Amino acid sequence: MGKTLYLDCSSGISGDMTVAALLDLGASEQRLRGTLSTLPAHGFDVAVTRVRKSGLDACDFDVRLDAAHENHDHDMAWLYGHLDASDHEHGHAHVHDHEHAHDHERSAEHDHAHHHHHEHRSLADVCAIIDASAMSERAKGLVHAVFGKLAEAEAKAHGATPETVMFHEVGAVDSIVDICSAAICLDDLGVTEVIVPSLAEGHGTIRCAHGIMPVPVPAVVNLCQAAGIALVPAPVTGELVTPTGAAIVAALRTGNALPASYAIERVGYGAGKRAYENCSGVLRAVLIASAGSDDAGDGDRSTVTKLESDLDDCTGEALGRVIELLMAAGAREAHAIPIVMKKGRPGHQLEVVCNGELAPALERIIFENTTTIGIRSMDMRRHALPRTPDGIETPYGRVATKLVVMPDGRVRAYPEYSSVIEACERAGASFQDVFHATQAAAINARSGDAREA
């Protein structure tokens, strides 16, 4: 069963804060570094350190660029140099002074003789980098979802299309690394549900390549408007929510309200880059579980996305292949149902159930591997009973089994197909013999545990 992540964004959110908070939760730094090394991008290294923010011990994640790729995006004098010096010092010591999907992060020139270099990439360019890496299919799907949201927001701001808009800031190496790192960490932690009630945002203005822009900047406004994300004004002069941070929430959030009661499993704190008054400068990430859900046998209640498409000119072999690809990419379920279409033509309805953040990547697989020219999608509520994997000893050897807790507390055993087949081949027994022997052994094991208790 997947894990539920709650993001407390009372100090805003940015890409580096998100990665730092997930690492502090327990995501593997070793796996992160190993996977990042497969990105076809150069000129960067990452540093993971401990810092103190508002008296709190927090993790700091920093993408460090070499001289050829440095863009001076941490230069607060350039970002806020248009403000009065005293206001700048006391009002908006910026907590996340890095990735922004608008031009103030990687602009062309600034007042202090620094040259701000930005790499311009299209959505297709970024997707090519993602797809060429060794990230898991699920992690790639998360990254595609985030960049898809950013492309839509930037296209709206610039009067372009997602396919033609050029990324300036988020097309640079450090921003790509931030977003990929967040996806790798979420995948490593096994997070499938993300709860974000609201985002705290500051006020005032910030310098961009196109001039002085109001806070929140256009990309953040477009992202929050499209995704229905609530913004809460904070007593801070400056930007708390970066476009990358807003895009992560817009793409990956599955809920906006905490359960009526919940248990805290782990907590992580991700540090921003600057400290200032009226804000802690950290993103708090919490792994939670609904209190008492296991005892009540209530299970997992979540929202999933269903994709479907009708096909009357796709071969059975092609359908089989696309189902394999969809399941490998993280779909919860994928199948084809025989239907009769208009004019009596036989066909199939391809149905896919997945977490919402994976929908863009799975739609791409469907378009590329079937003859469809359109896909319908809808959000659905899902209720899954609690289940745990187990290994059951049988006369035919150990068989992997899924134990499911019914609402009345009874437990059902579901032997795993592949493990049953292995036992059949190992013992020369029939499928039915091994299957029923495994169920009986599981029931006996549970009865024995109950007697001992």
Automatic annotation (TrEMBL):
<keyword id="KW-0456">Lyase</keyword>
<dbReference type="GO" id="GO:0016151">
    <property type="term" value="F:nickel cation binding"/>
</dbReference>
<protein>
    <recommendedName>
        <fullName>Pyridinium-3,5-bisthiocarboxylic acid mononucleotide nickel insertion protein</fullName>
        <ecNumber>4.99.1.12</ecNumber>
    </recommendedName>
</protein>
<feature type="region of interest" description="Disordered">
    <location>
        <begin position="91"/>
        <end position="118"/>
    </location>
</feature>
<dbReference type="Pfam" id="PF01969">
    <property type="entry name" value="Ni_insertion"/>
</dbReference>
<keyword id="KW-0533">Nickel</keyword>
<comment type="function">
    <text>Involved in the biosynthesis of a nickel-pincer cofactor ((SCS)Ni(II) pincer complex). Binds Ni(2+), and functions in nickel delivery to pyridinium-3,5-bisthiocarboxylic acid mononucleotide (P2TMN), to form the mature cofactor. Is thus probably required for the activation of nickel-pincer cofactor-dependent enzymes.</text>
</comment>
<dbReference type="GO" id="GO:0016829">
    <property type="term" value="F:lyase activity"/>
</dbReference>
<feature type="compositionally biased region" description="Basic and acidic residues">
    <location>
        <begin position="91"/>
        <end position="112"/>
    </location>
</feature>
<dbReference type="GO" id="GO:0051604">
    <property type="term" value="P:protein maturation"/>
</dbReference>
<comment type="similarity">
    <text>Belongs to the LarC family.</text>
</comment>
<dbReference type="InterPro" id="IPR002822">
    <property type="entry name" value="Ni_insertion"/>
</dbReference>
